[in-house]
Amino acid sequence: MSKIRASRLLGLLVVGGMLAAACAQPATPTAQEAPGVAATQAPAEVEPVTIRFATLSGPEFTDGYQPIVDQWNSAHPEIQVAYETYPWGDYWVKIPASLAAGNPPDVLWTATGEVDATWVERGVFAPLDDFIDGASPLDRADWDPLAWEYGVFGADENVYLLNTIINLPALAFNRDLFDAAGLAYPDDTWTWDSVLQAGLSLTTDVNGRHPGDADFDMSNVKTWGIQTRFWPVNWFPVLWSFGGRVFNEGRTGVMFTDPADLEAMAWWGDLVQVHHIAPPYEYFGDAGWDTAFGNGLVAMHLLDSNQIATLQTQFPDLNYGTTVVPSKEVGGQRYVFMFGRAFGIASGTQHKAEAWEFLRFLASPEMQAAYASGGRGIPASESARQQFMSELDEGTRALMDPYVQSLQYIFPGDRGPDFWTVVAMPLMQVIQGATTIDPAGPPDYLALMTQASNLANNILGSPVR
Fold first, then answer.
1. Residue 417's pLDDT band (boundaries 50, 70, 90)?
2. Is residue 100 situated within a structural domain?
3. N or C terminus of the chain: which is more exposed, having fewer CB within 10 Å?
4. Measured between alpha carbons, how far is 57 from 94 in angstroms, rounded to an integer?
């Protein structure tokens, strides 16, 4: 299921408010309390508690988390963890439904920066402060400060989530295609105009012609300069470096029709419409974007840090590098959107203490480094990050280093509840329209952004979101 369809499902779910507190289960009487049992009789052996742990399905999750669950279960017979996985679309339906029914998984994954704030606002997660500072404490000081802050919500600033893995975009480039074009590799001096100029040289049709050449055939392109995915997270580094923002200062409305936002969207869309260095939306549709770079169909890609492991597994011979995202001007400010892996305890669980013990293990520096190994993201713990980077082979370390450098470029200003319905869904529709070739003529960016703005502001203004 595509993210577009999944996001529509989620929008319906969060509006519906399918959340309810669980009913308490009756305690099993001990031998001393049970009628007819002598006081001198030894208590019966305590049955192990089984708790449930839920994430998305797919190797990006299961390859990293199944070994962690197995390690826990082998060392803790008193608390066993049943690992449940769900496809993307199902997760956002079945987890709220289980909460409403009073039978949720005990420890839950959610998407940092994307769904986390919405689920906390809807009451999905229990506060963690008493556990963090309790008998089995957690070392707050070892956490990346911003990653820790992303788990804190509400006026009372309670901790609801532990962000264990940070994901960010960086500019990936195909070394072989750059070498063939006689171009220097991208580095930290690049601007967005550098991307455009390189893309003009890297884009070739089946006859070897480039955009701007006579008879360039956009319908038969062999190699594209860069790809513009419909997922807005990949557009945010452009938006923010152009001075644009998603929300106004009071977060009462979006700023999609602000001149800076329009300029950033026009730059993004014109890569397809005017410069012809990026494939139009219909070239891939909802599928193929994640494999186009690996297959050598595009020379540059805003690659998320959690995709390094996937590329190394699916395309082991791909010769590529990474560097920090460009800025608008030489020496200008760079910006990235932070997302990743956040975990919390379901508010309706009957096993909060046991769930905390497993969550604490899951969030430990050792397990963060174990999950991230091979390029599944960046550990949020400082000590875990050092361990993770030291254990990587030289090639993978070189690929991951720009992501670690980019932690300083995280922009937290446009996050918050309703990200999916207010930000992601409207902007995906804009980007799809901005990058679709229409025989009737080029897109009207102002009209597209106005439509998205109206949709987003209607949601923000609704008393039930």
1. confident
2. yes
3. N
4. 13
